[in-house]
Amino acid sequence: MNRETSWTSAIAPEHPPIPKDWHWMAGLGVAALILVATALGFAERAIPDAGEDVEAMVVSLGGGARTLEPPPPGVETTDQPSVPAERAEDAPPPTAPPQPRALPSFSASDGRPSSGTGAGRIPSPPPAARPPPPPPPARTTQLSRRFIDISQRAYMGRIVYPRDALSRQQQGTGILRVVIDRSGRVVEWQLVQSTGHRRLDAEIERVAREVRQLDPLPSDYAGNRAEARIPIIFFIEYPDDG
């Protein structure tokens, strides 16, 4: 191979020597040795020996780092449980752990899978039966005192005190027996007790012929007809002289 070339230089007028092929090979081998030695030295420094003291650093939350000094020679060390990191005064409060989520409760069933529509639920008990209605009021065969008083006012409102009996100061009470149907219609009547004066009894009979309708029988009355004894009173009330 012809390695000669033209050379021109004011600093080195002579042509420099041209390196041979073995020069290149030797240089590459030396460079490889240097690279391997450098890598081994770095590995020895990076991986400490098991017996070598290792400097430990403890970092506290919110503060600077603090170096733990190794124990003095001759002091045996034992495995100690891990110590939690010291908490700085200005550190934010710790976050509370999340509360456990409550699981839905399940009721007892017959073991069949539920479709989510409630088909597998236990049927609710039937509603309680309604209490029976109260019994109807007991029916009676006696007319009330109120019914007798209303009927008496119907007759007494028509009575006219006879003038001749009033001048003779005749007084008395007659009893009129009246039979009425459920609608209150007077079916029959009879003067069963005299007032003791003929003129007064005649006035009672006149009014009895006029009165043909009274109040209907009460709903609790048992029969379709009722008999009432109505007192008709003739009484003279004198004015008080005092």
Structure description:
The termini are far apart. It contains four helices and five strands; from the N terminus they run H-E-E-H-H-E-E-H-E. A hairpin with a 4-residue loop joins strand 3 and strand 4. It has helices at 21-46, 145-156, 163-167, 198-210, and strands at residues 56-59, 65-68, 172-181, 186-193, 225-234. It is α+β, with helices and mostly antiparallel strands. It has a domain at 156-234: 2-Layer Sandwich (Fusion Protein Consisting Of Minor Coat Protein, Glycine Rich Linker, Tola, And A His Tag, Chain: A, Domain 2), CATH 3.30.1150.10. Residues 56-62 have low confidence and may be disordered. Strands 4-3-5 form a three-stranded antiparallel beta sheet, with helices on one face. Strands 1-2 form a two-stranded antiparallel ribbon.
Short description:
The protein is α+β, with helices and mostly antiparallel strands and 242 residues long.
CATH topology of one domain: Fusion Protein Consisting Of Minor Coat Protein, Glycine Rich Linker, Tola, And A His Tag, Chain: A, Domain 2
Strand order of the largest sheet: 4-3-5
What is the name of the CATH architecture of one domain?
2-Layer Sandwich
The tally of strands reads 5
Largest sheet: 3 strands, antiparallel
User: How many individual helices?
Assistant: 4
Distance between the termini: 182 Å
Low-confidence stretches are 56-62
Q: Given the C-alpha coordinates, what overall shape results?
A: rod-shaped
Radius of gyration: 68 Å
Bin the strand percentage. Answer: 5-15%
Class by helix and strand content? alpha+beta
Summarize model confidence as the mean pLDDT: 77
- The topology string of helices and strands comes to HEEHHEEHE
CATH class of one domain, named Alpha Beta
Helix content: 10-25%
